[in-house]
Amino acid sequence: MATTTKTEGSVPGTAKVPAEAHPLAEESSKIASNISYHACYSPHFSPFKFDREQAYYATAESVRDRLIQQWNETYLHFHKVDPKQTYYLSMEYLQGRALTNAIGNLNIQNAYAEALVKLGHEMENIAEQEKDAALGNGGLGRLASCFLDSMATLNLPAWGYGLRYRYGLFKQRITKEGQEETAEDWLEKFSPWEIVRHDVMFPIRFFGQVEVSPSGSRKWVEGEIIQALAYDVPIPGYKTKNTISLRLWDAKAGAEDFNLFQFNDGQYESAAQFHSRAQQICAVLYPGDTTENGKLLRLKQQYFLCSASLQDIIFRFKERREGKRAWKWSEFPNKVAVQLNDTHPTLAIPELMRILMDNEGLGWNEAWDITKRTIAYTNHTVLPEALEKWSQSVMQKLLPRHMEIIEEIDKRFMAMIRSTRMDLESKLPNMCILDNNPQKPVVRMANLCVVSSHTVNGVAQLHSDILKAELFADYVSIWPTKFQNKTNGITPRRWLRFCSPELSSIITKWLKTDRWITDLDLLSNLRQFADNEELHAEWASAKMANKRLLAQYVLQVTGVSIDPNSLFDIQVKRIHEYKRQLLNILGAVYRYKKLKEMNAEERKKTTARTIMFGGKAFATYTNAKRIVKLVNDVGAVVNNDPDVNKYLKVVFVPNYNVSVAEMLIPGSELSQHISTAGMEASGTSNMKFSLNGCIIIGTLDGANVEIREEIGEENFFLFGAKANEVPRLRKERENGLFKPDPRFEEAKQFIRSGAFGSYDYNLLLESLEGNSGYGRGDYFLVGQDFPSYMDAQARVDEAYKNRKRWLKMSILSTAGSGKFSSDRTIMQYAKEIWNIEACPVP
């Protein structure tokens, strides 16, 4: 880690810093003065000190000045040109640190680094003061943030909408008991990147009833109203003037909602109960929903996002019509594209219908035509529990008008099927939107999305094929052109250029251009140098530098010392049984047992390996939390075993987020993407690892299939059952036909022996033996794939011993990653779904 200069802590003042002759020095002097200005005149701390935290906030506000200027110019340009614009609705965004990304995209990182040196600080230390915005949990949020970066970089007229969660999902701590959850503190002080828009506020109604007028028109009345207040986070494009916005909504009650009479009567909690209910809406991402109150809160969040965003979209649409010739509502889909990122924003469909009919006076047919032409839906999963189904009674209670609209959409859809597709009538119970099962009547949100959207897309070719062949097959027979694939991508700015600058410089040197940062296909030109010894030496040096940084970080956060000369093997993602962290740790347990059985000379011949895990288990997901505990219990034994710990370490890196990923991914050499085939929609961390020259061990699942095609099958360690084999293998397992591999049984028995402590892991291990919560048997086929997995790991060990071969594989992994740029993905969305074009600020 870099060290600060001796002058750190001095007051910067507002005196001008002398400018040297060269342009960078002149620019950095101006920046230093601007940072000093913010330290003095945008104060958030006591005066007379300028430590790292204060320096971070002053620096961020200095950068924000530039972003606000560019944001204003972009907004005015879009308003003047009035292009068709995309509005991206997502419950999650995982932006990561904004400072390094902003100065990188603005191409002013050197000037800011030099300015901070003039003020007695190092950029690296200042950047580390920033806390990740806790606005998401997993791949859904990281994807959405990559997409915003690409939208801005491609100069597309686009806008993101989300919620401003005060406490995020949770902050993860690892103790002897396993995972512990505490509230995220990213807003404990404030975020310098958000700009509150006090003039952008919309009323959001809950509960109440539907009032029918004598003419038959319907209107939602009474209930309670909470205000949605806008906070804008500017998103700059890379080396472009365009700066778009992530608009986050916060929930707010008014002064009139505070009961002064009750307060003065000593009823303090009652007096402020409405304010408390308002604050609950944006308190936590995915609040527990085992109770009816929890379900109501989650549904409130989703509707709050959809209603506020659509009111804002419609306001802007009308604003841009002012002073123009007479316009019609039928123009709306020609100016507005709304993308639903998964089923969470599904309520945008009945909400747009409600606004058009009840507020704007349109008839059903016209409102339905506008809604269908406006809204598109991205599916991210085939997991049944992730395809949201909401209780009809909860929906009726919270959103009575929307329930009416959903019932009418369903009624008309079924009538259409019965009149035009009699062959599908027997399929209607599964195709309709409302499941009227008397035991548990629900609204199927995915079905509502498919029926109501003009386009439905999956996020990897395999995933999209499964959607068309299985999950939505009957709908495909009605609307064959509605379904598309849009393979996910990642932004090469954050995920290579900024997080691994040394490797990026090597790539630029050998390609003789840095245009690959916005045209990732150019990486394919690295293939011609894959055997070049000079490139091998430089590549190995950059990877080792990243491994050493990662080793320092791991020691800092876990207290475990790891050897940069060992193979760094990493699996970081949300903890879930289908992602099979359990397969990984069972493999580590077997490896440890075999090492213990070897003599000293035999151990010296093995490939030393450091296995790292990271990710959060949802607070109520018991088996996922057991997996976290098992990883840590295994690590506690292995890492302290003097016979073995030179050859094997097992580390759980806590509180996985974007900033942690920016340390782990550049330092990785092998990455595990080992989900049961057919269950991972895409994955994006696999793309990030591959882009950074990391070799993947994985199944033919999600985007792994396309990554393997692009980088070459000889550069991918493949194992496991294929997606089309999984149903048969599950049946065989259920029918007792599965014969477990002896190594699999040995690993489980070793855990049961108490080798890793006294915790009872029987319930976790029994999920592999016929007592899974997902059905009979080992639903995720851990036992089925275990021998194939261990054989693939043996091939990894051998390959790593051949340094020349491994470096070539690493270079070819990067060279084959061009397809997986979010710029490519977003350009396809723009052309094939949204029908929007670039609108660069002049």
From TrEMBL:
<protein>
    <recommendedName>
        <fullName>Alpha-1,4 glucan phosphorylase</fullName>
        <ecNumber>2.4.1.1</ecNumber>
    </recommendedName>
</protein>
<dbReference type="GO" id="GO:0008184">
    <property type="term" value="F:glycogen phosphorylase activity"/>
</dbReference>
<dbReference type="GO" id="GO:0030170">
    <property type="term" value="F:pyridoxal phosphate binding"/>
</dbReference>
<dbReference type="InterPro" id="IPR000811">
    <property type="entry name" value="Glyco_trans_35"/>
</dbReference>
<dbReference type="GO" id="GO:0005737">
    <property type="term" value="C:cytoplasm"/>
</dbReference>
<dbReference type="InterPro" id="IPR011833">
    <property type="entry name" value="Glycg_phsphrylas"/>
</dbReference>
<keyword id="KW-0808">Transferase</keyword>
<feature type="modified residue" description="N6-(pyridoxal phosphate)lysine">
    <location>
        <position position="688"/>
    </location>
</feature>
<comment type="similarity">
    <text>Belongs to the glycogen phosphorylase family.</text>
</comment>
<keyword id="KW-0663">Pyridoxal phosphate</keyword>
<feature type="region of interest" description="Disordered">
    <location>
        <begin position="1"/>
        <end position="22"/>
    </location>
</feature>
<keyword id="KW-0119">Carbohydrate metabolism</keyword>
<keyword id="KW-0328">Glycosyltransferase</keyword>
<dbReference type="Pfam" id="PF00343">
    <property type="entry name" value="Phosphorylase"/>
</dbReference>
<comment type="function">
    <text>Allosteric enzyme that catalyzes the rate-limiting step in glycogen catabolism, the phosphorolytic cleavage of glycogen to produce glucose-1-phosphate, and plays a central role in maintaining cellular and organismal glucose homeostasis.</text>
</comment>
<dbReference type="InterPro" id="IPR035090">
    <property type="entry name" value="Pyridoxal_P_attach_site"/>
</dbReference>
<keyword id="KW-0021">Allosteric enzyme</keyword>
<dbReference type="GO" id="GO:0005980">
    <property type="term" value="P:glycogen catabolic process"/>
</dbReference>
